[in-house]
Design goal:
By secondary structure, the chain is mainly α. Helices cover 72% and strands 0% of the residues. The mean pLDDT is 82.
Length: 109
């Protein structure tokens, strides 16, 4: 196995369905940003789903690098500085940590 994804009709359908599910979940999570009591259980649920699907820690790192790269390119250098990058890093790592260890208790709980 080469480790490369070979796109066929089945993969395309699966990838499209996953992309839609991700966007729906992100929308729900963003809507819950002001309600930590709703947000944490949702993130844990997403983490359990990913754990069951075989998502590993390095996958979160790959996603972070690509997500930040895309956002930086979109907003441009005038809107992306070291403070912004540090805030994104801290937020993403907190979320990823919770998703990687869904049973972990937080200080806020």
């Amino acid at each position: 196995q080469t480790g490369k994804l070979v796109l066929n009709q089945h993969n395309k359908v699966h990838i499209q369905a996953h992309a839609i599910a991700v966007m729906n979940t992100v929308g729900t999570l963003v809507a819950d940003l002001t309600s930590i009591d709703k947000l944490i259980p949702r993130l844990r649920q997403v983490g359990e789903t990913h754990k069951t699907a075989g998502v590993q820690g390095l996958h979160y790192d790959i996603l972070y690098r690509n997500l930040v790269r895309c956002i930086k390119e979109e907003v441009g250098p005038t809107c992306w500085d070291e403070e912004t990058e540090a805030a994104w890093f801290q937020a993403y790592m907190s979320i990823a940590d919770l998703m990687k260890s869904p049973s972990k208790r937080l200080e806020t709980e």
